[in-house]
Amino acid sequence: MPRSSRGVLLPPVTGSRPRRTDVYLALRDAVLQGTLAPGENVPSSRKAAIDYGVSRGLMEEVYSQLVEEGLLERIVGRGTFIAKRATKPTDPDRHEETIQGVSSVSTRGHKLAGNVACRIMRQFKPFNAGVADTTAFPWQIWQRIQARAVRDLRRADMNFTDPRGVPALRRSLAHHLAQLRGVRCAPDQVVVFNSIQQASYLLALLLTNPGDAAWVEDPCYPGARAALELAGTTIVPVPVDQQGLQVEEGLRRAPHARLACVTPSHQFPSGFVMSAERRTALLEWAHRQDTWILEDDYDGEFGHARQPATPLHSLDRHARVLYLGTLSKSMFVSLRLAFAVVPEAMVEQLANIRTQLDAFGAPLIQLAMSRFMDEGHFSTHVRHMRNVYAEKAAVLAEGLMPLANHGWSWEKGTAGLQILLRHPDAQEVQRTAEASGLALHLLSSYRHESAGGDGLLLRFGGLSISAIRAGVEQLVFAAQTMRHSSRNKSSQ
Ligand SMILES: Cc1ncc(COP(=O)(O)O)c(C=O)c1O
Q1: Pick from 381, 411, 341, 1: which is nearest to 193 by CA?
Q2: Domain HTH gntR-type: where (predicted)?
């Protein structure tokens, strides 16, 4: 790519002696595709001519043509700029279209690219977002701590850092896990990741061979399934009921599975807590088979209103449970910090695999997080948020009351950041509610196999109390409208 002494870098052209058309097309495409953004300053024609190795006259001609076409603007005394209206408007689907439009992607690439587990929400509407309430986040404290972390970042931390995570954060996490979740581990067992998804993917690479079976809850968190699929495992859906994963069914479908991925403290999306019986059965199977359980404790701090459920990890006597936690819910999702607790003997291998994917996580944010925990701000925040989410859950449950006794049901007493509202005709209500601005996810969309009964996942964590009230009113109205119209139809 030609370097420029002033202004943006110009796009490369092929060949050592480019022609006028080559230079023109390279610049035009870069502007239209947004590689050169509106308002950016391009080098003078004299400097651009030197960069491209063409004559000044040729470069002038190209610039003049692009000015005529409205792609460049010349401002006397200031220079030449990419025109403000030059780029095509950005289409959020463009990336996806491009991938689908490329005929040379592999069959595997095509399949995986079609499997979108996580995507930026086009619009934040009730009740579509599984995010934390950031209005209650102590921003000023966090900003101060971040600033201090920047100041204290030692030279050593600006180089390659430990792929297992910054030691200070591994210590803070071990301490926090014992305090808030009753998970006892040494800092040397903690490995820091960007997300639970990343941790699951790398653990699956470490623990399975291509094609090995992995039990996945049905219904389940799509991110977990996607991570295991990416790692090449064969997904074995195992149904979930009120007691959690049906271990017996798992044994029937794939007794020799190498992994089981579960959310025992707060099943996603059904909200059930795994019963003691099922926990024992799952742990016994893992011990007998010498296989592994990935325990995804994604919202363990908030899972249940009164007393968060005990992690499976604390009941495990044979070191078969690999515990996964995230700060996406307890802090905020763009933080990109999560962690795994694994047997010490596995840490080195896991870290080695991690280095082959993205070397290591950014140390700065890890240092800041460690301070936030060590100074007590994290536990204060979590305690405060437990109350905030419990209040929101209560407002939501109260708003849903008109639906009780009309075929709708939901788990009472749960908090977390979401509630599953069950009803066989949920799909129709979803459609009606969509028209009034709600974005509701169907329980069936998280399922592998179509089983009886459907529902609506109401994610309320990031909504204000007033937005919850307004949203639930619209939802109740949609459900009642549907009831009246189906009654009318049956009486005709
Ligand atoms: C069950 C479950 N696990 C994990 C996550 C996300 O964790 P992370 O952002 O660390 O991948 C979510 C997010 O909604 C989730 O529902």
Answers
A1: 341
A2: 17-85
CB of 298 sitting under 6 A from ligand 1: yes
Look up residue 437 and give its amino acid.
G
Assess whether pLDDT exceeds 60 at residue 5: no
Position in ligand 1 atom list of the atom nearest CA 326? 10
* CB of 221 shorter than 6 A to ligand 1: yes
Nearest CA, atom 7, ligand 1: 196
CA distance 192 to 342: 11
Do 316 and 431 belong to one domain?
Answer: no
Assess whether the C-beta atom of 195 lies below 6 angstroms from ligand 1.
yes
Task: List the residue whose alpha carbon is closest to atom 10 of ligand 1.
Answer: 195
For residue 61, the domain's CATH number is 1.10.10.10
Tokens standing for residue 19: 């022609």
Cβ burial of 199 (10 Å; 0-12, 13-18, 19+) is buried
| CATH number of the domain where residue 179 is located | 3.40.640.10
Rounded distance from Cα 105 to ligand 1 centre (Å): 29
Residue 336 has pLDDT above 90, yes or no: yes
**What would you report as the CA-atom Rg of the chain, rounded to the nearest whole angstrom?**
27
pLDDT per position as a tens digit, 235-274: 999 999 999 999 999 999 999 999 999 999 999 999 999 9
**CB of residue 216 inside a 6 A radius of ligand 1:** no
